[in-house]
Amino acid sequence: MTEPLPVVPEDGGRLAQFDLEEMQGWQVREAVRGLLAPSTGVTVEDAVLVIEEMVANAREHGRSPRRCRLQLQPGRLRVEVDDSGTGNPRVRTPDLSGGRGMIVIDRLALDWGVLQYEGFKTVWAELPLDRPRFSPLSTAFEPEQTDTRNDS
Fold this sequence. Notes:
By secondary structure, this protein is α+β, with helices and mostly antiparallel strands.
């Protein structure tokens, strides 16, 4: 079993790097949870979901070599996934062949994009860690409170 590369201090944050050719999905998920510990809850699970989608896209649509970097910064997590595929991810209308992963990333990330280099690309996303997040299926408002007391 391949272990993730060590988490090392860098630029006031923490960084973890993974060779996605050698790591299983569960190892990446556990590394994310470990990097974000002792935090738990929706924020951590949102990060895990976004990273899973980015890694799955690199494995399905990209080519070797594939690597992942997670950088913990004050109030946010930056995720970068490298692959040598030529296509770029994009938000599209879902159909039977897929298309939901980038919608999830787009909704949960503060921002995301693609950096092109000679021979490879980096898909990146930044996730908030310092504010509560709502599920994409929930509403962001509280229902009106009605006074049910009988004052008569």
